[in-house]
Write a structure and sequence with these properties.
- By secondary structure, this protein is of the alpha/beta class.
- It contains 18 helices and 20 strands.
- The strands form 3 sheets. It has a 9-stranded mixed sheet with strand order 7-8-6-9-10-11-12-13-14, sandwiched between helices. A 6-stranded mixed sheet has the order 15-16-20-17-18-19, with helices on both faces. A 5-stranded parallel sheet has the order 3-2-1-4-5.
- Helix 6 crosses helix 12.
- The model has no long low-confidence stretch (mean pLDDT 93).
């Protein structure tokens, strides 16, 4: 669409916040008649509304259900569920609904410049790490790039800003993909699939289908997890451009058209001249920080996308070496009296916690929080042989305690019957009491944090503070 196409177009933006406010401002700047509707009517919302109204944008607080008269398009923030009355009304009126990703995709090239291709990543876990690894590799290749999207950096800013990019590393959530029907990436990856956000999607099938949208129309490569058949199934079901290839990644020895690991080396048997007989060395496992199994998988997926874009092996190695993970993602906090303390507060679901638990042995596990409807039997069964002990915190800790009683009855459990933020300090002390030299105290809660903390970052900071206090006492 050209600038002229937007002039006078009546657009409703559903929701304020990280994506709603930029969308409203961009659309208003293009000449659209913008109305923002928002469920909340708190002090923060009123402050945001005042800022938009000062620019000539209409804002309706406390009314996110009613479709404004003459609306021609809805642009929604990712968190709004598809069953909202506003969307039902839009469907009945024949009004299309786009997400912020769809809007950014449609606005590419609006300034007349050739749009940067998108290398897109989704999955239940590991998205942010993989996208940041990918951006580091692309930068090592001398390309102008940015990690954007669900990572917290606005796609609209990347598409419409002054910076000219060669390629974008784009993290996409299942919410964003649901509302992005036109997206057509250069290449894309689904890292893994496990039950998550089912209250939003309605079923595992619907959740997987929305993740699979990332492959639609891919031009060069659909990257999948060769050790998770569900991701390969999504590739098989996708309608891609002629010549687009299915590229697997695996922690095992790779077959043709795969990337994998051989004798501690990350190797490529996909983007080589003779993939039946040749393999290209990309990096050593020790070049990946941290080199836990699930993080090696992230690195292989990032490498596959970079290789699909034509990046050489030396840049893959250099980019992985330069990458530093975000805080609270299997982050080593300290060693105290021979015990390692690891902060994986970002492990907010069972799938993430499973990967984290698989990386260490023996473990004193700190777990619990908001379960979000999860079951813990399979997680505990898989980890039972590694557990020295468990310390439980948070509102839904009883669910994990019951799973431990059934599947790991011999493992000592400390159940902290408190949900104040100070509980973390006690949890660390109890874990220290259970641990022996050579053990790892791992905070991988398998649950969301909001029963006790503002977010997983604050939970991780509380753990790290408690560990540092412990270390200071032992000096």
């Amino acid at each position: 669409m050209s600038n002229q196409d937007w002039r006078g177009k009546r657009v409703t933006v559903a929701g304020l916040g990280v994506s709603g406010i930029p969308a409203a401002k961009v659309l208003h700047g293009l000449g659209a008649v913008v109305t923002v509707v928002n469920d909340g009517d708190d002090e923060r919302s009123r402050t945001q509304a005042a800022e938009l109204e000062a620019q000539g944008i209409t804002v309706r607080l406390g009314d996110g259900a009613t479709l404004p008269e003459s609306t021609e398009l809805i642009v929604t923030t990712p968190g709004w569920k598809p069953d909202k009355p506003l969307f039902t009304a839009a469907a009945e009126a024949g009004v299309p609904v786009w997400g912020d990703v769809e809007l950014a995709w449609r606005l590419r090239g609006l300034d007349g410049r050739e749009p940067a291709p998108w290398l897109a990543v989704t999955g239940t876990n590991g998205k942010t790490t993989t996208v940041r690894m990918l951006a580091s590799i692309l930068e090592a290749a001398g390309l102008r790039t940015a990690a954007v999207g669900n990572i917290g950096v606005s796609l609209l800013d990347a598409v419409l800003g002054d910076e000219k990019y060669d390629v974008l590393a784009v993290e996409l959530s299942s919410y964003q993909l649901h509302w992005a029907p036109s997206l057509r990436a250069h290449s894309a990856a689904v890292l893994n699939l496990a039950p998550d956000h089912l209250d939003w999607h309605g079923s595992m099938e619907a959740y997987a289908a929305d993740k699979g949208r990332i492959y639609e129309g891919n031009r060069i490569a659909c990257v999948y997890n060769a050790q998770e058949r569900a991701t390969e199934d999504l590739v098989r079901e996708a309608d891609v451009e002629e010549g687009c290839r299915a590229i697997g990644f695996t922690l095992a020895t790779p077959g043709p058209s795969q990337l994998g690991v051989v004798d501690g080396i990350l190797v490529d048997r996909a983007f080589v001249a003779n993939r039946q007989k040749q393999a290209q060395e990309l990096a050593e496992v020790t070049d990946v920080n941290p080199s836990a199994p699930h993080n090696i998988a992230n690195a292989l997926a990032a490498a596959a996308l970079a290789r699909a874009f034509g990046v050489g092996p030396a840049a893959v190695r250099d980019g992985l070496r330069a990458f530093r993970p975000d805080p609270h993602r299997i982050e080593h906090v300290a060693d105290v009296a021979g015990v390692a303390y690891i902060d994986d507060s970002k492990a907010t679901n069972t799938h993430a916690a499973e990967a984290s638990l698989a990386a260490y042995d023996p473990i004193v596990w700190i777990a619990g929080g908001l379960a979000k409807g999860a079951a813990f039997g399979e997680l505990v069964t898989g980890a039972a042989g590694r557990l020295r002990g468990v310390v439980l915190i948070g509102r839904d800790r009883a669910l994990i305690r019951e799973a431990l009683a059934r599947h790991a009855p011999e493992v000592p459990v400390v159940d902290l019957d408190r949900t104040d933020t100070g509980a973390m300090s006690e949890a660390v002390r109890e874990a220290t009491r259970l641990a022996r030299p050579g053990d790892t105290v791992l905070m991988a809660p398998a649950c969301a944090s909001m029963d006790m903390f503002v977010n997983y970052n604050k939970r991780g900071e509380a753990f790290a503070d408690a560990v540092r206090a412990l270390a200071a006492e032992s000096d």
